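Exercise: predict the fold of this chain.
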Amino acid sequence: MKKVLITGGSGGIAQSVKALLENNGYNVLATSRHELDVTDISSIERVIKDFVPDVLINNAGYVVPCSVREADLENTKKHIDINLSGTFYCAQIGLKYNPKLEIINIGSAAAVESHATWSEYCATKAAVVMATKCWAEDGIFSVCLSPGRTKTKMRKSLYPDEDQSTLLDPDDFAKVVYNAILHKYPSGSHIIVRKQNVMDLI
């Protein structure tokens, strides 16, 4: 039974992935921020040392749109700490305890699309895409899956009036994550997943 650790485990995507994997016989630990804080190295170390995953899904994310003109430095720091540094911390500590660790990074279509007030989010997600490619060249199985507009609580809080029928369903995205775990996509892949193409991927 493979063990899978999902960071940012209380979100809609994480819960859909957890349910699908458990239905297929995986041992899944989906951690909330209070259980595993991706910005806190000791917190990551404690959880990973105890669980020792075979697969790490870096899913924790943070986005609060803000113009760079406003110089909200604490907001900028949180984007970098959670979206980028946390991804590296979890990967490096995970590999320390399991050198054969496989990594699925949850990116965002924002990695390749500019949004005026999302510069920190776009930039950190773009960096995760490149990290994924580098890790693959370093001999680590790693894939980056980047959902487009998805039906999540985070999205709802940002765009409360959005037509929900136009959004990617987390349960469908979870099937793409499962395929990645099954190595149906090459290591180093960056796959953008949208409502319009998800059925082609699963």
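Check your answer against the key: The longest strand covers residues 142-147.
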